[in-house]
Amino acid sequence: MSRFHFVPFLFCSFVAKNKQNRSSTAVNPHILLCTGCNGRGHCSGTPQGNASGNGQFQKYTCICDTGYEGLDCEKEVDGCAAEPCSLGRNCSNLSIEQQRKEGRAYKCGPCPEGFVTDDNDTCIDVDECSTDPTICDVTSTCQNTVGSFECICNTGYRMDGNSKTQCNGN
User: Fold this and answer.
1) Phi-psi region for residue 36, left (φ > 0), alpha (ψ -120 to 50) or beta?
2) CB 139 within 8 A of CB 153
3) CA geometry: angle 87, 89, 93, nearest 5 deg
4) Please, which residues have CB within 8 angstroms of residue 35's CB and are 6 or more apart in sequence?
5) How many angstroms separate the CA atoms of 160 and 49, rounded?
6) Which residues of 156-168 are buried (b: 16+ CB within 10 A; e: fewer)?
7) ∠ CA 85-90-117, rounded to 5°
8) Dihedral sign computed on CA atoms, order 71, 47, 33, 40
9) Beta strands 115-117; 75-76: pairing state
10) With a cut of 50, which residues of the chain have pLDDT below it?
11) pLDDT recorded at residue 52
12) Which of 28, 48, 138, 163 lies at a CB distance of 3.0 to 4.6 Å from 61, suitable for a disulfide?
């Protein structure tokens, strides 16, 4: 059993004839089509790629509305695909409405302890030594670490086994 595949083909050509029945040379117009971008964008004035088939037809490039992507705006944006959330935080895709409101396609979970979130939803290390100069006792020096801090006891002192901020004399 054989199957046939029909591919519609359209070719436009214009020829002018005068009263003496003389014909002009054929004019084959270049036709730019707007797909409508699936109702999720609008056509630009820029053709996409090369003309197809007989070289006569070409589609305009779609400029997709917020939340959509693809040649014809056929796909919803997956904001979490590029794993934008640092430090292993959860990523949640936003609805189209939320994307329009927030100007991005995803939302990250909270930053871990020892970090704060900046305006770009990036976790920034908190310098506990600067924010609380008395975090370590007077017999030690505070040293900031990523996501935390460490109290380093002065010479002649050692860390109290029950505390990470108190040093005892030897």
Assistant:
1) left
2) yes
3) 135
4) 43, 59, 60, 62, 72
5) 70
6) ebebeeeeeebbe
7) 50
8) positive
9) unpaired
10) 1-2, 5-8
11) 57
12) 48
Number of H helices, E strands in the chain: 2, 13
CA distance 91 to 79: 8
Domain 126-170: which topology?
A: Laminin (2.10.25)
Cβ–Cβ < 8 Å for 90, 106: no
Distance from C-alpha of 36 to C-alpha of 59, rounded to nearest angstrom = 10
Residue 7, pLDDT score: 43
Please report the pLDDT score of residue 3 as a whole number.
Answer: 53
Instruction: Give the chain's length.
Output: 170
Name the region of 147 (left: φ>0; alpha: ψ -120 to 50; beta: rest).
left
Q: State the pLDDT at residue 147.
A: 93
- Domain boundaries in the chain? 11-76, 77-123, 126-170
Q: How many CA atoms lie less than 13 Å away from 89 in the CB half-sphere?
A: 21
CATH number listed for the domain at residues 77-123: 2.10.25
- Which of 167, 115, 122 has its CA nearest to residue 140? 167
